[in-house]
Amino acid sequence: MSGDPAGVGLDAFASLYERHESDVTRLCTRLLGAGPDVEDARSEAFLRARQAFAQYDPSRPFRRWVLGVAANHCIDRLRRRRVEGRIFEAAEVEEGALPGPGPSPLGAALQAEERRRLLEAMDELDDRHRVPLVLRYFAELSYEEIAEATGISSSAIGPLLYRARVKLRAALRAEP
Amino acid sequence: MSCPLEPVWIAYVDGELEPDDVRPNESHLVTCERCRALVLALRTEKELLADVLRERPLRDAARDASDAPARGLAVGMPVALLATAAVAAVVGVLLETRLPGASWLSPTRLLGAHEMFLDLVFALRDRAPGLLEFALSVAAMGSLAALATFVTTALTRRVGPPRALGVALLLCVPLAAVPSRAVLEIHEEGLVLASGETLEGSIVASGEIVRIDGTIDGNLVAFAEQLEVRGRVTGLLISMARETEITGTIDGTLVMVGEDLHLEGEARSTVLTAGDRIAIEEEARIASDLVAFGADVVMEGTVGRDFISLSEKVRLLGSVGRDAELFVERGAVESSAQVAGAVAWHTWNPDDVRVDAGATVGGGATTTVVEHDRPGYWSRYTSASFYFWILIRVAAAFGVGLLVYALFPRLFGGAIPDGRDFFVSMGKGFVVLLVTPAVIVLLALTLVGMPAALILAGVLLAAIYLAGILVAALIGLSITRPAGDTLRDFGVALITGLGVLAVGTLIPGLGVLLHVVVAMVGLGLLIDRARAVWQRSTAIA
Fold it and tell me: Which has the closest alpha carbon to A121: A163, A166, A171?
């Protein structure tokens, strides 16, 4: 490992990646929905992360960095799914119109059944709500980083997260 | 001010509010109960979302369980004990009969232990960020404070309070310089020190990667996945990294614990290593001794003094300034090796160790065969000295027990709890047995905490000893049921209890388990009673 200029070799990358591999898979599943795409996205994310490893700043948590790389790739895939490739821009149009006081926040005391439904409701959110939600609360990216990855302005991230949460509350409270 | 909208509070909980907006919103929180409730609810919801996304059990489930720790312990401890007993029995039998394939269970094999230890350290880092660093700094500050208190108290006794205060203040002046070196500088998210850069002081670094290309003028303690030192550490280096690679120079003692340990550089003092694979490369220079505990040890470098290894397999290809003491299962001093002193093998397989023809060994080679059929578990029962030492131990415990009774008779009041309380006591003792050694290790790691660690270790050993005596006395009291509470009555009860325990621990297999149970229950009772005595004394005061 002392041979390459970065000083941190590929075996370092492999051992780090291995520990976060399951989170990368989970992120791809949350962003793309379960399906054949996930496996492709996962291996592509691995390759991209390996290439970009020289730019990784070791003072930052590796998990956030690698999930950021994987998220960027998944967002590219989401864009390709839409022919016009404009999935996130629409969000900014709505920015002014926030829903009024919605249902109150969800409590932690959910049964296993309700948690399963919550996960389903998340999968059913449209991309522009689901992606920031997953990037913030699973990948733990900052609003700024989410804005960078999605191309949404960073001031719109907060309102988007709010709307996403209101939708989830409604979905969970609506049906039995 | 009207209440801020919910998105504002979401950004607040996410830590994403503009710095200028934080203060006005926080002052609103102070006065507005409704928004406080909303912020709490949003925080709970955020945790719920993160948990569901991670498909992990909810925190609340854990909280519910902790509501009934006593019930959990009462159910859990017997189960845990039975499981431990079963595992211990199986492992004991496997080791004793030397089944092929069972050797990995042997305590001399370090593979599993290291992985478990490192996994524990990294799990702690992941699950409780900052905990290790926090514990280290608390230990460092605590031991400094303890030393300072000790010095002041001692001085007060000698020279009286006013002068002691004066001396303490005078001492503070030079001591003020101490924290800058003694108190640790902590890097939580890894550390990369570029070549040409210098850091001073005692550094604790943890994170994925710790890489030192520059110079650390002081000590370095590293917990990391990977540690690479290509520069220089002028003090001591303690590495707890899964992989350690040292190509630079270490002036102080070098301690490496991990899975893969490579030394290619120069160690100007002693090197102590414990790991699965230890490689001292050809370029490596060790000025003093090398001690290596490992599964697989390869020594190709130069050791100035002794080379001592306790390992499964060792290969010596380099040069040793004095003797090589090798406790191994298999090993070879190969033809390129040069040993100025003697080579001493200690092994139970004399056929599996060899000194190759080309090797230079100044003091000759000896092989001591460690008894393969060492005095087994059963043969001790036929030896008289075994019983003699038990008698000595019982007598010593009796003497100590009487002394403690004379000093603190209240300690021995009451009886051994039954049912659920028994297991609760045992659980408390279990926690003490588990946590105290961890605290001792952490204290010892801080270097300045070394004296405190030694004191604590002494206290723990004394407490375990006392725990046995306490349980013996309570057993004895419940058997003899003395009418009075004279020293003589207590003595009769104590010797009865000690006798019962001594006989109990003679039972093959179960004896060890009994020891453990007695230590745990006794420690638990000791804590309860010490607290009761303390509360009573403070209530009176």
Answer: A171
